[in-house]
């Protein structure tokens, strides 16, 4: 199959969506598909797919821009600059199927009319949420796709009667994310304290401020937040007040992510609802107990043995963290068996099966 993956951040950022889609693209390319990736970064010599550059302006440059209908966030501003360049480089006749998780502009460019020839199948992936598929308001009325990849069972149940859907989660590289000694010294973590790790963008929905409040009563615990975003100053200020000498905020390269997990004692994620959350199987594969918000969606990923609570109740989060740390000290560290289900090889196979099914229905 001739496949195109398009997203503004490809080869420029290492965020969850970029990591997930590029991992699928790479696995499909390695197993025989003709895969092209268009993003705003630069080509890398060792990738198994063809890369085409289409520039974009970083979303951080738009953080103080007015948020208005259609341009509802700095992310949409960034996407608009990418889509304009994508339109110049995208030739629909070159592909059997195109895939993205970006709406509105990227999705619309990939669905543009074709004069003669066969239009490629358009797959939309609910990596950043399902609202384009379910909402009929404003610009969402113009959403369309030939296939919808639902990254959790809630999305699948909501959309299966309206769109051609497949339930396919995100995955992890089980060759990279595994048990290891970590390297606290290199990362600047204290050697004599228990380390609680959050891997989160510094945006309101990730609730990092609430994570700081939950760790504050734990006098011997050190909180590490790996991520950045527009709330960085608020996070620093609250940590200075509640966690003096017990807080580290940093960003790491993708190569450092396994070491980051291996250097912690417990993983904390405060989002009330994630589309999937690559961080959960990554943490499990590195042997970390999970503290997160108790939903059926998260239990579908991590199972029933993790420390899931109502994270809107701060004392409950503090207790869950204390229990998770105690459990880790009491038993040998082991990899959750569920983590291996999310190997990228398995996920890519499910994408190929869905694409094959859609193409068969189209013929």
UniProtKB/TrEMBL annotation:
Origin: domain of life = Bacteria
Q: Where is the Glycosyl transferase family domain?
A: 184-339
Q: Which Pfam families match?
A: Glycos_transf_1
InterPro entries (alphabetical): Glyco_trans_1 (IPR001296)
Where does the signal sequence lie?
Answer: none
What is the protein name stated in its UniProt record?
Glycosyltransferase family 4 protein
Source organism (scientific name): Parasphingorhabdus cellanae
């Amino acid at each position: 199959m001739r496949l195109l993956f398009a997203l503004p951040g490809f080869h420029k950022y290492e965020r969850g969506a970029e990591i997930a889609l590029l991992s699928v693209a790479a696995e499909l390319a390695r197993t025989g598909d003709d895969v092209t990736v268009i993003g705003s970064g630069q080509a890398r010599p060792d990738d198994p797919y063809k890369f085409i550059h289409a520039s974009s302006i970083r979303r951080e440059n738009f953080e103080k821009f007015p948020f208005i209908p259609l341009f509802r966030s700095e992310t949409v501003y960034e996407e608009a600059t990418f889509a304009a360049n994508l339109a110049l480089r995208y030739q629909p006749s070159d592909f059997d199927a195109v895939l993205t998780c970006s709406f509105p502009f990227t999705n619309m460019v990939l669905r543009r009319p074709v004069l003669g020839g066969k239009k490629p199948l358009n797959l939309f992936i609910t990596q950043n949420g399902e609202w384009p598929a379910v909402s009929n308001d404003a610009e969402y009325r113009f959403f369309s796709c030939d296939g919808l990849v639902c990254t959790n069972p809630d999305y699948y149940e909501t959309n299966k009667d309206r769109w051609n859907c497949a339930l396919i989660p995100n995955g992890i590289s089980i060759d990279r994310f595994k048990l290891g000694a970590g390297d606290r010294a290199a990362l600047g973590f204290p050697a004599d304290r228990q380390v609680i790790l959050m891997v989160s963008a510094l945006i309101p929905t990730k609730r990092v401020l609430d994570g700081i409040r939950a760790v504050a009563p734990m006098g011997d615990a050190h909180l590490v937040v790996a991520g950045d975003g527009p709330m960085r100053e608020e996070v620093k200020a609250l940590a200075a007040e509640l966690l003096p000498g017990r807080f580290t905020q940093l960003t790491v390269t993708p190569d450092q992510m396994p070491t980051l997990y291996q250097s912690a004692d417990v993983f904390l994620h405060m989002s009330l609802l994630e589309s999937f959350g690559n961080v959960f199987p990554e943490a499990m594969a590195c042997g970390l107990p999970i503290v997160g918000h108790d939903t059926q969606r998260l239990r579908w990923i991590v199972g029933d043995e993790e420390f899931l609570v109502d994270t809107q109740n701060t004392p409950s989060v503090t207790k869950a963290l204390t229990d998770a740390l105690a459990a880790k000290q009491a038993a040998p560290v082991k990899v959750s068996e569920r983590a291996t289900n999310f190997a990228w090889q398995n996920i890519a196979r499910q994408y190929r099966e869905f694409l094959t099914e859609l193409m068969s229905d189209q013929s």
